[in-house]
Design a protein that fits this description.
- The two termini are about 30 Å apart.
- Helix 9 packs across helix 10 and helix 11 packs across helix 12.
- This protein has 15 helices and 11 strands.
Amino acid sequence: MKIGQLDLGEFPLLLAPLEDITDSAFRVICREFGAAMVYTEFISSEGLVRDARKSNEKLLFEEYERPIGIQIFGSEPEAMRLAAIRATEAMPEVIDINFGCPVRKVAMKGAGAALLSDVPRMIKITEAVVKATNLPVTVKTRLGWDEKTKNIVDIAERLQDTGIAAITIHGRTRAQLYSGIADWTLIGEVKNNPRMHIPVIGNGDIDSPEKTMAVFEKFGVDAVMIGRAAIGNPWIFKEIADAMQNREDFVPSLCERVEICLRHLHLAIEKKGEYKAIVEMRRHYAGYFRGIPDFKKYRLQLVTLKTRQEIVDLLSGLPSGFGRIVPE
């Protein structure tokens, strides 16, 4: 699959942009496990226009994270145009527009998935961003605002006409948030629409090799984007790739999980300081140690510890032979 001139190979697996999750440390780990491309956390266009520190920090990435997309969101075409210029200066491979975030604090500002209820504004924003940068522009969105407005087939055509290089579609409406089961049928309709000539990337509920292979085969998508299933589980990219290429399954041992988790922690502390890194790492522990019997008491301790050394001591001091992994 190509996004512009960027060749991501056949059947690529991409890491979805997730707020407070896909920071630089986590992106590094996911790239090491085979994510074909990663994305920043979503960045407010208004924050970039105001030169806000937090927004500027999200633009930063390391060379070894490439290829990377910077995702921006906002409700005003001019602010998004200026944000695209700022994002271009950071020199990522791709500028991505967030038309899919359903959370209230974004949607209530008329941004993210809220623009599914104002398609003309969505198109104006996309046109402004495409004209503002020489980089490929992609869009991430949803099926529609609610069950009565699943108009993604038409929206995808109109977005393509603005000059975007690819579209990612999450198989839920904004009204669903993350409830229910992702519907890939309309994603398949977009991909198989004879008017569509840009790559179509599918997203939603991908958490196993079996589901990944099924959506590639049944719906013909060009790539799959993995979001929540990667939290605390960065090796999912290797697990899926190995299965798709008939290689031996990768099932990390407890020792390997501890090693990966601590490397993630150390990278996060290096980039954002001990306190913030430790608080944000708490979102990952359930994933890192899922499937390990009797680990709950240790996980409950992990989310209360306040220093790196305490976490290192706990994970490094697990009893010998503890934690035989039970296949799920």
